[in-house]
Amino acid sequence: xxxxxxxxxxxxxxxxxxxxxxxxxxxxxxxxxxxxxxxxxxxxxxxxxxxxxxxxxxxxxxxxxxxxxxxxxxxxxxxxxxxxxxxxxxxxxxxxxxxxxxxxxxxxxxxxxxxxxxxxxxxxxxxxxxxxxxxxxxxxxxxxxxxxxxxxxxxxxxxxxxxxxxxxxxxxxxxxxxxxxxxxxxxxxxxxxxxxxxxxxxxxxxxxxxxxxxxxxxxxxxxxxxxxxxxxxxxxxxxxxxxxxxxxxxxxxxxxxxxxxxxxxxxxxxxxx
Amino acid sequence: xxxxxxxxxxxxxxxxxxxxxxxxxxxxxxxxxxxxxxxxxxxxxxxxxxxxxxxxxxxxxxxxxxxxxxxxxxxxxxxxxxxxxxxxxxxxxxxxxxxxxxxxxxxxxxxxxxxxxxxxxxxxxxxxxxxxxxxxxxxxxxxxxxxxxxxxxxxxxxxxxxxxxxxxxxxxxxxxxxxxxxxxxxxxxxxxxxxxxxxxxxxxxxxxxxxxxxxxxxxxxxxxxxxxxxxxxxxxxxxxxxxxxxxxxxxxxxxxxxxxxxxxxxxxxxxxxxxxxxxxxxxxxxxxxxxxxxxxxxxxxxxxxxxxxxxxxxxxxxxxxxxxxxxxxxxxxxxxxxx
Amino acid sequence: xxxxxxxxxxxxxxxxxxxxxxxxxxxxxxxxxxxxxxxxxxxxxxxxxxxxxxxxxxxxxxxxxxxxxxxxxxxxxxxxxxxxxxxxxxxxxxxxxxxxxxxxxxxxxxxxxxxxxxxxxxxxxxxxxxxxxxxxxxxxxxxxxxxxxxxxxxxxxxxxxxxxxxxxxxxxxxxxxxxxxxxxxxxxxxxxxxxxxxxxxxxxxxxxxxxxxxxxxxxxxxxxxxxxxxxxxxxxxxxxxxxxxxxxxxxxxxxxxxxxxxxxxxxxxxxxxxxxxxxxxxxxxxxxxxxxxxxxxxxxxxxxxxxxxxxxxxxxxxxxxxxxxxxxxxxxxxxxxxx
Amino acid sequence: xxxxxxxxxxxxxxxxxxxxxxxxxxxxxxxxxxxxxxxxxxxxxxxxxxxxxxxxxxxxxxxxxxxxxxxxxxxxxxxxxxxxxxxxxxxxxxxxxxxxxxxxxxxxxxxxxxxxxxxxxxxxxxxxxxxxxxxxxxxxxxxxxxxxxxxxxxxxxxxxxxxxxxxxxxxxxxxxxxxxxxxxxxxxxxxxxxxxxxxxxxxxxxxxxxxxxxxxxxxxxxxxxxxxxxxxxxxxxxxxxxxxxxxxxxxxxxxxxxx
Lengths: 273, 339, 339, 259
Fold this sequence. Notes:
Largest sheet of chain B: 9 strands, mixed
CATH class of chain D: Mainly Alpha
Number of helices of chain B: 14
Helix content of chain B: 40-55%
CATH superfamily of chain D: MetI-like
Strand content of chain B: 15-25%
CATH architecture of chain D: Orthogonal Bundle
Shape of chain D: globular
Structural class of chain D: mainly alpha
Shape of chain B: globular
Radius of gyration of chain B: 21 Å
Radius of gyration of chain D: 22 Å
Distance between the termini of chain B: 54 Å
Strand content of chain D: under 5%
Number of domains of chain D: 1
Oligomer: heterotetramer
Number of strands of chain B: 11
């Protein structure tokens, strides 16, 4: 540590001032607009917003999909992370690289693939009909299922990465030790792995949940105007109606939900230990 | 580091300078068939005016919102949009009255296109009919009511209420279902009841074309201007002639207030409205002419909304009525349909 | 004062609000090898960093060679420092590491090469000039770090725990090396250590510090044989320390009388000075450990626990055995009372 | 332990789910037909070639490249000193500063774009390009600080003191000793920043104007207009670009530990 703190401040300040002035300030003004009605501070905008059935539905749908994606990615994530951690060094690196890779690829490209896959003439429908599960193609595009799948594919890597790094920090041989002491696999998971990796789960859960809340492309392409989520609703409100009050409200909701999820998950993990 | 800094600065400066050097006209247009419009309209105009056209695309209402957001400092000089969106902008005082003496072809336009929203705030450049496009190999459509029928269940798309085609569709559906009144409430409720059978509510005509080519959708209301996307495609698409008739509208061109680029904008308007250009655009089946002097072959006319007789037969909605009632429709739509 | 080469006057050092060194005076002569000795947290490293200029003074002044350096930045002081971790530059090879400071001085190329080669040969690393630090052993890294400082011909060379990261064999080797370098160059060296044997073996003078205050300053002989405070006595192996009260001495468990007269203050004995097997006092063996040439005992006595040792050749006492012992005048260190 | 076959199956299925769609995209782009389809109607490279002929793609690609390269460089110019200050000094209000710099990760991008449009572009007359540049810089900044900080924390600070004692100024010590040793961290930060910026959508959603559009936004609108396989081809090309970057970065920097 160096002693000259003023020098340190001088180094850190440009970045902080830049972000504060060009990023936080405009965002802050936008959020504050939602608390004003005719120039007066008021929560009326929020009451009006909450009273509209469409907004309620979209809010609940966003919450539901966020939870669902986080939950399912945790299940898949644990299975995948456990398998990856048990690979030998070389294979582990490769598989891990392949898991990280999609994060580096444009989400537009990632979502676009699902149009081909889920369309009426896409491979999922071909498979369903080929297997004789249904005579007519099933409508998958513009449904919550499509949005769910798209989001899951988008954010699963974040969960796997978080869990893999949590599991790598597990003390060696705790799982065999628990097995020797007579625990079955479910007990190994709930009594040993889960408590020891909960930090990774919290991190991954937060990333996936907030990612799902704030994703735009996936609900826009795979959900369209029938499966609106908060982010697409915000876009629509602004683009169609110049409704900046609703935009500010949705923005506040999104930020509060992201923070809330983080706090909640932290609380849960703290309570468990 | 220093080198990089210098490089950055240099890049910024040069990009700024390069932009300032040219004469530039920024226009805001619909997003369909831009490749064709480029050939038919933008490229030849750029040659004549010795300027650069910067094109923004999107649906009418989105672009209208953008013009409103940027009102203090207009980005767009000249825009084309639906007549009712233009009227909304005019009422907000965001448009500049047109000096029609600077548009010589103005006199050649159909009467209804010469001053469609009053005060010379806009001129019409093209009419369109709106009807239902459907896959004739799979279904037969002869009434607007068919959109909510079993025939197209799960494979029909409707235009979103916020777009230009939305109100027109409601208008015709109301007629077909026998619901009276401009508030369309019964019609909206009827759509709400069937919402699970509707694939999606599309925002742009261009998007619908994609959905129909993808075979997600086999029938949907659409403006005639988008017909060219269907007519040559791999499936047998057909333009319905419902017993209630067709609806339609007019697209208009306008100028934003205080855009500071009036001369070029007038030059472009005149070019677009001229007999020569309107004929070319008509022959490419891009847009139906508003210039009454345009003459096209019967075969071309077949694809267009051409001729005074046809235009007069369209069940149009009054621009003022659309603006006055739109908020109410959207509210009910959000409540009953899209949730 | 005039003979001092490095002089610290009323130096006070603090981290934020925590004062580590309250008021230090220390004069070091030219060409001396001085050890700053003390347990961790005693302020020895802080003092060294202050001399180097890496730590600003809270109060007081530091001068080197008659010049006040209190406000001189570290890079202008002409002080060298060999870090405990060596702090070699991982991206540079041995040659470049040594040349680093010379290049900053913008010396002619040939001179740099000459001095670096000489520096490397002084520490016996000429053959490893192209190696990166990561490819060298701990001892080699240590010598490289030394060479890097030496080529700068600093007025004062500071060494932070120079032997602590080396194994026992290398430590001996390095100790000799340091002494040789000091003899050859005549450079003034100050090194920091917590290991009394290191200080005793190397230093001309030892500065024993505790809680930021100099406890005792003197030659190795002074400190080893004539420690002046309880702390110094304990640090140099007088582990049995008792307070004198009249004709007896007092320990935590009680008092015993002594057979000789002592000055007021404390009396202290090394474990080896405790006479075992005969004497006026009784003890029970509480612990015994074989340590090669010696057996080390812990006795429970009327004073409390005392430590003793006996040559391994003598008969051993078992755990729990009772025996007699004496604390003789011969071998007792008298520490006079303070003030 | 579970049998290896089960573990392989799980990994295989997961990877198929995560990566399989890209192969479909690549294949769909190879179609010889005029419409997006999988399996493709015959094979041809024409859609991959068409990507390069679409003028708007060329323009938006140039803009996205510009933003990704220079936005990231700007973020590093701001972020490296900040990371250095955070890891080497006890700055007053250090926690506050850290929170401020990290904030752009938390705030949904769409809001950022909207806020900049409303309060910088419209009233202050910033160009869209400048607003995009500022937004992307702020967005990449937290990643730059995080990655560079972790490199700095692995570098002992006594090395800088050694350099100073050998005659360097503090600044000189930074350039001669610190920078060469955190090179790979800075490079990793650059790559992460580049990819983040290049693929960024929500921020750019509102920050688009006539003739100014980032590539992802341009792709979105192109997708709505045309249903030919060129967007698939472009997506595949972009994915390939990322793969190459990540592969090279992983090979030389061990990139995935920074993600």
